[in-house]
Amino acid sequence: MNGYKVLLVDDDAAICKVIKRALKLENIEIIYASNGEEAYSLVRTQIFDLVILDVSLGDTDGFQVLKKIRTEGNDVPIIFLSGNQHENDKILALGMGADDYITKPFSIFLLVAKIKAHLRRGDKIKEHQTSLKKIIQGPFILNTETFQLFKNEKEVFLSSKEIMLMKFFMENPNIVFSKDQIYEKVWNNSIVDDNTIMVYMRHLRKKLEDDPKNPKFFQTVWGIGYKFNNFIK
Predict the structure, then answer these.
(1) DSSP 8-state symbol, 56
(2) What residue ranges does this record give for the DNA-binding region (predicted)?
């Protein structure tokens, strides 16, 4: 299963070693985090196809990490690992947005089978969205064939570069990108012009925010860059 990237969040080195070895045999890339703060930071700045999240972490618990991820609108599949056999914990995790719950000790073969099943399901969802030729995020719909953008079903007219920037953000919601990353992905150029990006972000806010001076969708993350927030309360 080439091309997949999984985040493994667990402070048990022995279990991590077993999981990493098993997924490596499936050609799945593994990124490791040993605590909740590190995991949350990685999820905000990178794109993962799946997260394996242990309930017991050194600095927090898996429930708090899950809550933060889902609160930001990130729907990455999450498999919980727990040594707790209590049914209430399973119900709580699934109710908070976990996609699966596996208790320790577990069969590594069962875990790998579940991971592969969730990855296949994610592929089908992506294929369905692609076949519709639309990207839908919050109140926005982008037709990737005609490059028309709609907000609350009303068309908003953008320039070609504004459309490409919006497409990039809609394909990568709730992830913080540096100016370097945005310039490389949208402008196909590694030479960053801070002023250019600032101007285009100002244009998007003016055309798409309800209150451009207090943006909710296009947020500045000071010291890092920008993110597109598709989850507005």
Answers:
(1) B
(2) 132-230
Q: What is the pLDDT of residues 181-193, one digit of tens each?
A: 998 889 887 666 6
Beta bridge partners of 137: 140
The predicted model scores a pTM of 0.64
Q: Which pairs with CB-CB distance under 8 Å and at least 24 residues apart come from 154-158? A: 156/207, 156/208, 157/207, 158/204, 158/207
Name the strand (E) or helix (H) holding 139. none
177: which strand partners?
226
Residues 6+ apart with CB under 8 A from 114: 79, 100, 102
pLDDT digits (tens, 9 = 90+) for 7-39: 999 988 899 999 999 999 999 999 999 998 999
* Distance, CA of 4 to CA of 1 (rounded, Å): 7
Integer Cα distance of 40 and 43 in angstroms: 5
Fill in the amino acid letter for 85.
Answer: Q
Q: Which residues are CB-contacts of 152 (< 8 A; sequence separation ≥ 6)?
A: 139
Alpha helix stretches (DSSP H) within the chain:
13-25, 36-45, 62-71, 87-96, 108-131, 160-171, 179-186, 194-208
Q: Give the C-alpha separation, 74 to 103, whole Å.
A: 24
Domains of the chain: 5-130 (3.40.50.2300), 134-228 (1.10.10.10)
